[in-house]
């Protein structure tokens, strides 16, 4: 879904074709390789968006000794669906890293809805973390498992507190309009 959000957001700015987007993603940092985005995946998502009626072909560029390039534009339905796709990914995201494409395209959604989604997420994580901390009192500690329990406890504590801290920071920055 993040790939489709990326495609739709690029088409909000200007008409383009799949290979051009692939090129943009690979220069100067090879984000396509880092994200595992192959040309075939990109073409698949263009095709999927076209079948959904969210984009449409508007031009074919013919060049000698080169394959034809099919240029796409976003449709009215695509403009309407982009925010819905962004909200859906943000609601379903387990980590901030799962929301990066959405956050990069925050200008296409209502900040207040994004804040609400993030605050709900923060509340659930905080509640769950409080429950997990209560389990520590129930764990039987014996000398054989003491180091293992301390290791796991430290790992889980650091990870959860880190997640909570960065979600709070993200909420603050979205509210301030930092991006």
Automatic annotation (TrEMBL):
GO terms for molecular function: DNA binding. The keyword Oxidoreductase does not apply. It holds the Pfam family PadR. It comes from the Bacteria. Keywords: DNA-binding. InterPro entries: Tscrpt_reg_PadR_N (IPR005149), WH-like_DNA-bd_sf (IPR036388), WH_DNA-bd_sf (IPR036390). Residues 7-82 form the Transcription regulator PadR N-terminal domain. The keyword DNA-binding applies. This is DNA-binding transcriptional regulator, PadR family. The lineage of its organism: Bacteria, Bacillati, Bacillota, Bacilli, Bacillales.
């Amino acid at each position: 879904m993040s790939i489709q959000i990326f495609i739709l957001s690029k088409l909000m700015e200007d008409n383009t074709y799949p290979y051009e987007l692939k090129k943009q993603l690979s220069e100067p940092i090879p984000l396509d390789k880092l994200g595992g985005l192959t040309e075939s995946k990109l073409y698949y998502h263009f095709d999927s968006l076209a079948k959904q009626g969210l984009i449409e072909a508007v031009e074919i560029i013919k060049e000698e000794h080169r394959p034809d390039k099919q240029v796409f534009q976003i449709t009215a339905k695509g403009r309407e669906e982009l925010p819905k796709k962004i909200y859906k990914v943000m609601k379903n995201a387990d980590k901030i890293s799962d929301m990066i494409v959405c956050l990069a395209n925050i200008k296409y959604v209502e900040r207040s809805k994004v804040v609400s989604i993030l605050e709900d997420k923060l509340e659930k994580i905080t509640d769950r973390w409080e429950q997990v901390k209560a389990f520590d009192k129930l764990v039987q500690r014996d000398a054989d498992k003491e180091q293992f329990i301390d290791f796991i406890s430290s790992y889980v504590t650091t990870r959860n507190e880190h997640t909570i801290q960065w979600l709070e920071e993200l909420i603050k920055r979205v509210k301030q309009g930092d991006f």
